[in-house]
Amino acid sequence: MTAKGPLAGIRVVDLTTVIMGPYATQILGDLGADIIKVESPEGDSLRNYRPLRNEGMAGFFLNLHRNKRSVRLDLKQSEARDALLRLTATADVFVHNMRPQAIAKLGLGRDAVRAQRSDIVYCAAVGFGGNGPYATRAAYDDTIQAASGLAALMGRQCGNPAFVPSVICDKVAGQQVANAILAALLHRAQTGEGQTLEVPMFETLVAFNLVEHIGPYAFEPALDEPGWKRVLSPMRKPFRTKDGFACILPYSDRNWRDFFTFAGLAEAGADPRFSSLAERVQNVNVLYTLVEEIAPLFTNAEWMGFCDRASIPAMPVLDLVDLWIDPHLTAVGMFRVEEHPSEGRYKVVRHPVEFERTPAQLRRHAPRLGEHTQEILAEIGYSAAEVVELTDPNREGAPTSHG
Question: Could you tell me where the DSSP H helices lie in 36-167?
């Protein structure tokens, strides 16, 4: 018998869109929760990014929305809102990523949802915390990179502020959403109490960036400006080797002694500027310049061979397309090809955590828009005729176009 995930039996009503919220619910779905993705008549905007095989089923949608069921409801209609509230009565978690004024306008604030189930975990994944002056502002990954200090950190290294070429804020905040929901579910299991959560992107990324960059600024008064010098060094970069690029990162005192011996730099090994971690941090630009000068003398394979023997952290620079043939990722089964019912063969990136007893699994392929509407409404007591009435695009008051 296939083992169930650790969240088997947990139902999540998911009103999130784009990446932050859907990434959080992907994590919960991989762990066994029943994720009910509630979509507008037009569907999640991420569905239609090109290229794609069929409308509404973009490539990154296939992994981001696995293990979810889609119900299509026009929440501007009172009957659809009533259906959603009826659904929340069966749920353990309600999560959305709307701005406060938008969720209030729909009549789906905390009080309305908790009236259906008092012990529900109600999670608002928002851009900015509700008690601050930015609470009603729109937030996207780029705006949070700018606001949280991340773009400025890139500027301190590269010369001008820049965005990290990844939706890192959405993904970090998405993981925080999942963690917060899990903690609230544990609290409920121990006490029987539900609670309301607010997970703001801005505050999450500020805390994330300051883990290391608070440094000397942690003291009062501050000993220096915030920022970890080693990480901010413009010389902190992959180094060109004889046949590519690699990260070569001697770290301990022993690592550096072995590196200097291998590189034929005996005098550097005796240099007091490099004798301890504290001294090396103060002279990091000089130190990394030495690595940059030596790196082209050897191939990636030669560097990896030496660094493995000397226990020096090192990895070649891999392009995204290289990941699919990386021997380690192949050995751990990171990727496989599955058959989607409507989209055909596609690559699956597995959940990265290994569970001995309750492994994460692919139980459902990403749903087509509204694929499970009839099924889900039937589960909460709607008759076939009522489902037809509720979802009929020609009913009185229904929108004239569904996109």
Answer: 59-64, 78-88, 100-105, 110-114, 141-147, 150-158
